[in-house]
């Protein structure tokens, strides 16, 4: 199958990144979300992201007008009928994801693969609400999507080898490699990362060190490009909280108990970069 047109469901930070990566590599994109306000924000985020990509990849000739021309911003899910591959990026909330998959399963051609861009939700569970569980695969992109060369691919219980092979080919067209892992909550990356971030929040909450110093230790002692709390701000503290809650519910293990400070900050609207303030300030 040729991947001429890709459907991208969810026009948040990750969805915009996936759409940009697809458009930059010559694909047509149908980017779907629930209302025009979300799509207007997506257009603005795309412009910002394209400027950043051009700044850090001066050798890559990227024409913003051409990228925009390849992306169809829409609230009409029916347009996904022309997609040759679908990447879903909606919020980490099972009830929302379940409703989305039940909806798109009736629209998208039966042979088309669904890639679940999730940090913690079971791929097997997603597949169970579709008529094509063998064609449902996890595809955990990292942020910012156009600049990250590796994707964590997750095999659900029913995911076939043919689906995995097609997912590899799809990612190769985006200029990405992948590592295939099994379907357990959090997979590899977030089972470790979310626990690390949550523990870093506890350190700030308990007065062991301020956020800047926690991040500085990781960057200077371990040569990490970003500290755990800077990473949390980049991902979004609301997404971090939902992911930790999924791990806590899935494993029933107190080590995944969300830090009260994390819950408080999300309730206060301090979500990180997207709100202008999280553990650090961005305005």
UniProtKB/TrEMBL annotation:
Pathway: Lipid metabolism; butanoate metabolism. Residues 186-282 form the 3-hydroxyacyl-CoA dehydrogenase C-terminal domain. PANTHER family: 3-HYDROXYACYL-COA DEHYDROGENASE FAMILY PROTEIN, 3-HYDROXYBUTYRYL-COA DEHYDROGENASE. Residues 6-183 form the 3-hydroxyacyl-CoA dehydrogenase NAD binding domain. NAD(+) binds at residues 10-15, 33, 92, 97, 119, 143, 274. The record marks 140 as: Important for catalytic activity. It comes from Streptomyces monashensis. Belongs to the 3-hydroxyacyl-CoA dehydrogenase family. GO terms for molecular function: 3-hydroxybutyryl-CoA dehydrogenase activity; NAD+ binding. The keyword Oxidoreductase applies. It holds the Pfam family 3HCDH_N. This is 3-hydroxybutyryl-CoA dehydrogenase. Keywords: NAD, Oxidoreductase. The keyword NAD applies. GO terms for biological process: fatty acid beta-oxidation.
